[in-house]
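Interim report to the steering committee. The following record documents the input for OmpA-like domain-containing protein (674 residues).
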Amino acid sequence: MRRSLSMMLLLAFTVSLGFGQNRNKKIESLYKREDINRDIRVYNASSINSSRMEFSPSFYQGGMYVSQNRNGLIDEKTGQTFNELFYADLDPNGLPIRPSNFSVEINSERHEGPVALNRQFDRIYFTRSNVKHGVTRAGKDKKVHLKIYEAQRGEFDWEHQKELPFNSDDFTCMHPALSPDGNKLFFASNRPGGYGGMDLYSVERKEGRWEKPLNLGPDINTAGNEVFPFLHESGMLFFTSDHHKGFGGLDIFMIDISGRKWGRVINLGEPFNSASDDLGLILTKDGEQGYFTSNREGGAGGDDIYFFEAAGGIRGIELPETFGLVATVYDGQASRRLPGADIRIFYRTDDGLIDDQSLYDLELLPSEGYGEMVMKLVRKKEKFLGDPDVKTDRNGEGVLQIEEDQKYVILVSKDGYTSKEIAYSLKKDAPLRPLEVVLDPKNCIELTGTVRSAAASKQLIPGVLVRILNQCDNTEILTRTKFDGVFEACLEIGCEYTIIAERGGYEPQLTRISMEKIRGRRSAEVEMQMTPMDEFSEKEPIRKGTVIVLENIYYDFNKSAIRKGAARELEGLVRLMDTYKSMEIRLGAHTDCRGTDEYNLKLSEKRAESAKQFLVDRGIEADRIKTLGYGETQPRNRCDCDIVECSESEHQYNRRTEVRIIGIDEAVTVNYRR
């Protein structure tokens, strides 16, 4: 049977492994197959796997870190090159793609990986060969063991590296895994006093200091080897063993350690485990997707990364405890409780938006820069957000199920009232207090308008400036049509309004609407048609030469890879290019002034390519996208690092990706007049 790199590393770094001791080839069933695995689909992550070794994935932002052995020095113990850490983005299906260098500071000429990160992704724990000042250090047994190190995220890379205090030159500590709250670390070690080769340990951090490690005991540890721990939010500990009854080689197991009394060790069975080595499973918070490593037949060679989907989760895993949040809704004018209000709850991203791109419309607005536009995401109206999670009862109350340490957006709405969004989270061990929400009545009619072309195409027109003049007091409301040609406004009851639509390339359009005799209605609709002035107006719904500035794209440190989850405007650009199939663009990336001119130029070129790849991964044809890196040559403010000291926000204003429309020719039938 082939041995995985992980197995070879175990052979290299342990004294006695006990392989082959009474292995049960028939395998006593520890579970009913249908109790564990239902609707499990497994895929080889072929975009990052090679004939070499890829193993031990770890979540980071919206991507993952993975250990790989690439060209370099040979480890005499395994006959393979040393492991390094790489970062891989995830494609829209969850499969890792395009591994890139992880860190200049952490990667050395010896082994690095696996890793664990805290929830804020600003502290990392990683396995590394015992190296100090670039020189390996052997223990009393003449072996170079592995240690666990810690580093903090700095401005450009991982900084302040230090080894953890429970390491030793004379035995190995490796495979760190962190509890969700970041205060407990699980790891594998062959330190003295264990049950066999490698055992699993836990260690707590109190008041900033690590306590003494504790062996997890004989329910988990055996005379063989237990390695690659991973603690899920549910309290389920996943680990790898070569001695618990399994399918052969290394197998993946789980045990519930969430309560005072632990559960029993359960083999995950097929398709996770096979006759080959299977190890290092990680699982998303909802329990429905994850990754593991295997050297099973049919892979690219050696250890490969596999992605799996578990519809409904892996049975036996209980999701984190939920709490009932009582939300009470009040009428702000009548000072009474409000029954029948709709309450919706969504997961919230770090930028404060709902974590669901489909719930937003696109809007293109003029920017401060000449000829520039910015892309804005506008939340859709409540009626397009699906059914509410809760409706308030006759006492104006509704109960929402929430988890600790989770970020939410709570949206409360009712016809005739102004909706309210609340950012909410419950800190661990904090008291659960009722949520009180006050909705103010609207004294207006919600107007939804659509602007189309008067030509035969009836094409929706984005970016139209809509001026709404109140005839009662001559006040004016200014708004614009969104990506779908729709505009919205709230108009005072009892007045007449003049609506004027204006856009370059079209004749202005005027219409009137009255809110004087509205009875029992809270909404109104209007459609306006604008006549194109020439044949190019409809062929170029967004003018050739237009520059769209994408400011909210974030890159990790001085890297070129886009942080998945921090590229909402690029997701919006995908929707734009899907709508206008003829659109061709040039992506231009800009850096701030920190770093040398040459370095910034190369970095901006890589960032532009990264943005292009992001679009291509989502189905946009590569030949529709050109790229260009500007480096630091076109700042938008006073920042000049040789002269002026700038704040981080000022530097961020200069770091942006721009989209220039270099071609667009929509195939429409146009009837126009001069």
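Residues 440 and 538 are 42 Å apart (CA to CA). The committee is asked to note this result when reviewing the revised timeline.
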